[in-house]
Amino acid sequence: MNQRPALASLAEWLINQRTAVLPDDILHIARRCLIDTVGVMLPGSTRSVSEKIRQTLPLGEGEACLIGLDRRTDPLSAALINGVAAHALDFDDNCYAGFVHGSAVIIPAALAVADTCGASGEQLLRAVALGSECQYRLGMALDNQLYHAGWWTTGMLGAVGACAAAAVLLDLDSGQCANALGMAIACASGMKAIFGTDSKPLLAGLAAQRGIMCAFMAQAGMSGPVDVIEHPAGLVALCNNRRLIRKWVQEPSSQWCLREPGIDVKRIPVCLSSHAAVDALLCLRQQHGFTARDVTRIECNVPEIVCINLKYDRPVNGQQAQFSLPFALAQALIAGDVTLSHLDDANVLTPELQTLMAKVSSHTGTRWSEATLATLAPEGAEITVYLNNGNSHSHFVAKARGAASAPLSDDELSNKFMQCCQSVMPGDSAHKLLTHLWRIEEPANQHMSSYWRATS
């Protein structure tokens, strides 16, 4: 007996949820994602990769806001440009349902469509929540095998979340939505070879653009491969070793991925694979009071995926430094943390930092073969610091501060937002924008476009 295509079931769930009463905690999670993403998007809009995109791309006319700029354009351009800005600093959130940077793709897409169709703040927030959940359920169905095989799942699956959010805002029916999602998956792309290059934020932006384009195309009547997941020449056959956990896409339940595994918010602006190691080192530093001058070497026992992701042992610029465990640990030990200012190319090349980076080594020990650690500590770290007085100290961290299991408080998230805005807007304007984002649904009939005008 032929099974119903997974996308048909997922699309039906999505459209039914569009008018349902969503749980308060789910909306709050979506609100936090929105605040965090807009916060990192603002300074991201000033990075060279964002400037290159704006210089290269011919902009059309429209109502979609370019975040951080007093400029509006067509939704496809806005989704691309804002998506690049959202991921330019690699300071945006993560979700282990697919190993993805979800919000950096979904939120730029949702903002572009919301501005274009005059959606309210409440409608935007609902679209972000449902678009995110749709993508994360597909990620769970694929069981993270895509990521471990070398695909960059933010590029591969991001268009699904962007498309789903757009479908909610455009009021597509379930058939149109299934066609749109099929097109989005059929156009999927992304390989982890891009890490440490401009192509990484570019692919995030392209996923946002591709997602809303597929939604607009389906609205216009275009068909898509609704069976693209299960097809003999489809996603799971070609890219996922035929692995598909159907319950996540064919039997949607009250188990929200936004709750579990949840959203990991970054406390520092480097690849999440280095966060647990940084937290472990800073804990040892605080407990034992050593400084960089006291250290002879630092050994890191980390999962294989951490070694793969953090591929730059001797970074030569800020972009590479974001994917360097030696940089993250050396910078944290010298300065007590890692901040956006530390990603300056000149800072990466300072002799003190380079000397300390040379003292850091990493390997994958036998403890990571334990099945439970794949869930409990997918990017965990055990750090051993050796001192010139002969002493050594070790510490293990399963998940870093900011993870869904150890979340930043709302106040801490607000502080991150304000710190991100320091270099791009006056403090009173940043506070006004932050206050608005915390109250995004009030009033429900106010159009999103007026919010951006009020804070530009």
UniProtKB/TrEMBL annotation:
GO molecular function: lyase activity
MmgE/PrpD C-terminal domain boundaries: 269-431
Domain MmgE/PrpD N-terminal, residue spans: 9-240
SUPFAM superfamilies in alphabetical order: 2-methylcitrate dehydratase PrpD
InterPro entries: MmgE/PrpD_sf (IPR036148), MmgE/PrpD_sf_1 (IPR042183), MmgE/PrpD_sf_2 (IPR042188), MmgE_PrpD (IPR005656), MmgE_PrpD_C (IPR045337), MmgE_PrpD_N (IPR045336)
PANTHER family given in the database record: 2-METHYLCITRATE DEHYDRATASE, 2-METHYLCITRATE DEHYDRATASE-RELATED
Family: Belongs to the PrpD family.
UniProt-recorded name of the protein: 2-methylcitrate dehydratase
UniProt source species: Erwinia typographi
